[in-house]
Design brief:
The structure is a homodimer. The first copy, chain A, is of the alpha+beta class. The first copy, chain A, has helices spanning about 1-25, 30-35, 55-65, 105-115, 190-195, 235-240, 315-325, 335-340, 375-410, 440-450; strands at about 75-85, 125-130, 135-150, 160, 200-210, 220-230, 245-250, 265-275, 300-310, 360-365, 455, 465-470. Chains A and B meet through helix 1, strand 3, strand 6 and helix 9 of A and helix 1, strand 3, strand 6 and helix 8 of B.
């Protein structure tokens, strides 16, 4: 009896194991990557501690066919800036996350490792200019990083390997096919990366950088663009309202406060905020009757462009949300001034930020970098993008063609903002009459209680200063912050 | 020991069961739907035999909660025309297929059955104007069908139920909420259907029709539109070339021959074939320097519009393929005349048809039908479509914005047609030098041998006539054919 039972137990244990394996497989291979997902995550407001953890490369080698060991120490290194563009619609954001590998950074590091341009993330001296959220794209995301170099002579950003006892540089072995640069010239970074990156992420340009140059701290300004159709919006009113954002203000009511990550002060500087038609040449000329441009074409596309030193979490999308309410005449432009007046309005009314897909991190300004030029890589990127544009534009016109047909049949145009579902006009509640989110002070208290923040009461009655427990940095307005998630 | 083992066995058995259930759930619930996918399929050229088989309604009732039995015979019936619009990108075509239920017709019949506007497809006297292929959309697909009516008095197309012995019409029971029309007015067909149809299929209009009126045989003309960007194409040359299609020609070299389905003659009449900009008002005025329109803007969208009595299988897409080759200057416009000259060119050169997603069955002409007008349904359809357009237009402009940026960085525009991948210019082989498909005669012979076609040799040396074995119809040019798949 016992023998039979033992056999039964053994059989069942194997069956359980088999089913568990199958479940694991059916849930995709992604779970193997879970171990890899614990990578450094940086708090938003500039704390630079690095976390110990599993290096990506050692885990990744399991997934690839056996790679020859590569001796990085015999190669020169070079500190460079890389300019990256990506369509963010299919990604869970730029920054690596624990619960998914569908991030732009994850793909970037896969490419950097596959091409052996870096040994691993932790030792690559990696900095990024900013982070973009799920669904948000970038034309100009800049990172700085130390890449393998082919220059055995001094150059900007180059670190040479140690010489051998005989006084020469180590041999680096036979270069892989198609990657040997002309003597005296650098590796073709863009070409190497674009060959292995997914189509919706492109390396557009690179620049050598002096040691210590940082994508995060040396960025002089960042520019975002938000695309939207006129629909029923009063775009001129929106453009006037947008001006009210310019200058240095406390934007706590125009962002999602991220106290838990150590963001405690909300003063930011906006250098420019404009709204203009996408097609500037067809702005129309009212004095010229021959120019047949419809000045109120609901199908005309506009750009909200905003340039700032640094941005808070979701700041641009909150700004856009306010502008859309103003454009729908649900709020007046004064609401912006009121929300920036944190003395009178210390707590943010509850309102949704604008949707993600129209937002693009369009420009990052780094004076002093000598961009090398994308060359052939730009033409390839352009050709691929033209095909994607063509497909998208054709679909847009299929919709538009049917809309024209419906208009001809007597259909009326929708009165609510076309970017969002549902009508907001029925039962619209003005912002200043809505319930508010917690105040900054309450949020701080919340984290102080949980031991996440320390409070230093000011000496001699000066203002209390808080700091995250994981950081030695004090937070004050003089310190530049990184671009927050938008 | 045995007790512990027994407990272990019990525990493991439960674990196995739990894991199996989880596997089943993870593999999805779709397998239950497979039973429902066997529906009728009709050959292309109008053979109207009905297939015996499971009616859709009896299978469908399993999926729904128990429905009260519905006595169709006590309701009036009405012969009507319905105008349907749909975005075909997510469907496997309009016509029902055996191996998938992801067709427009399948959804249409689900809606007609769910609303109890018909009892089943076989007895609904259903006719369709045409069929569109996978990926192809329609703004004006028309069907004729007998629907349940609420009119108990004579009206156009109305068939009254038999009176009861007491001389009155049968009671039809309590109407479902929200579907009781005002006394003397018809059921709100469009509203009822749109409530249950998927968002990408809309009922836009309806018209009462005399008994015998057929969407298939009473259609006077059909109009297609194909949207495309200029890119590097010579659009003026394409427009001139398109004219050569007008008239009555043998289009066997400009379609996919479908002899197996009984299509044996390829003469068709094209009433109009034009190419024009989508935005006709901005055609530009070269004499007016203030009109800043770029006459060669590669990003300008155009429409190829073609109107004909009836079309062959893939005819429009083959026509477009030729026009695209001409636009790329890979062929001259004369190629059209040459391919329509079946005496000189009896066999079709191998070439791919144009892609599906830009094609729309835009109009179907039925003189004499009194369309009732879509009313509120049109406004709803318009509002929904505006949101879809907005999303698509924003994405198009994100691409366009990046392309502008790349141009500013020095990228050159792609020289090959933007609608297709890959460059066609390298190693381009002129059409008349390519291998050819089988001739019509060879295809006929092929099917005669397989017993699918009968040949009647002409009497007194007249021309042989063929007919499909499943049809009593003779095929000759006098008989209008249905719109074929495009």
């Amino acid at each position: 009896m016992s023998d039979e039972l033992l056999q039964r137990v053994t059989y069942l244990e194997e069956e359980v194991e088999r089913l568990k394996n199958q479940l694991r497989m059916n849930n995709g291979c992604r779970e193997e990557d879970d171990v890899n997902k614990k990578t450094t995550s940086e708090p938003l407001d500039g704390q630079t501690e690095s976390k110990p953890g599993v290096t990506i490369s050692s885990k990744k080698t399991k997934k690839h066919s056996k790679q020859r060991p590569f001796d990085f120490s015999s190669h020169p290194r070079r500190h460079v800036a890389l300019r990256i563009a990506y369509l963010g619609w299919e990604y869970q954001g730029f920054a690596v996350q624990e619960n998914t590998d569908k991030t732009v950074e994850a793909r970037l590091f896969e490419a950097l490792l596959k091409t052996r341009l870096i040994q691993d993330r932790q030792t690559s001296n990696y900095q990024r200019c900013g982070r973009t959220d799920k669904g948000v794209s970038a034309f100009s995301q800049v990172i700085t990083i130390d890449l393998r170099s082919s220059l055995f002579s001094p150059g900007l950003g180059v670190t040479l390997p140690d010489k051998t006892p005989s006084g020469t540089y180590p041999k680096t072995g036979t270069p892989a096919k198609n990657s040997a640069p002309a003597p005296g010239s650098e590796l073709e970074y863009l070409k190497m990366l674009n060959r292995v990156l997914p189509q919706d992420i492109r390396a557009l340009d690179w620049a050598p950088a002096a040691d210590g140059f940082s994508a995060r701290f040396d960025c002089q300004s960042r520019t975002y663009r938000y695309y939207f159709p006129r629909g029923p919006l009063d775009v001129e009113l929106m453009a006037e309202a947008a001006q009210r954002f310019v200058g240095t203000h406390d934007f706590r009511n125009v962002c999602k406060m991220d106290v838990g990550n150590g963001v405690l002060q909300f003063q930011r500087t906006i250098l420019a905020a404009t709204i203009r038609p996408f097609e500037e040449n067809t702005s129309g000329n009212p004095e010229d009757p021959q120019a047949p441009h419809d000045p109120n074409d609901p199908y005309e596309l506009f750009i909200f462009e905003i340039k700032g030193l640094a941005f808070l979490y979701h700041q641009v999308r909150c700004m856009m949300a306010l502008l859309l309410l103003i454009g729908q005449k649900l709020e007046s432009p004064e609401i912006i001034n009121q929300l920036l007046d944190v003395g009178s309005n210390p707590r943010k009314p509850q309102y949704s930020m604008a949707v993600d897909f129209p937002l693009v991190l369009y420009g990052c300004d780094f004076p002093g970098l000598a961009w090398q030029g994308g060359g052939a890589e730009l033409h390839c990127a352009s050709a691929a993008l033209q095909q994607q544009w063509a497909r998208s534009a054709v679909e847009t016109h299929v919709y538009r063609g049917m809309l024209r047909g419906l208009e001809a049949m007597g259909a009326e145009s929708s009165k609510s903002c076309w970017l969002v579902e549902g009508s907001r006009m029925k039962n619209y509640k003005p912002l200043l009459e809505r319930p508010c989110c917690e105040s900054l002070e309450a949020r701080i208290e919340h984290f102080v209680k949980r031991g996440r923040l320390e409070r230093d009461d000011g000496e001699n009655g000066g203002e209390a200063v808080h700091r995250g427990k994981r950081s030695k940095h004090f937070h004050d307005s003089a310190q530049p912050s990184t671009t927050k998630l938008n």
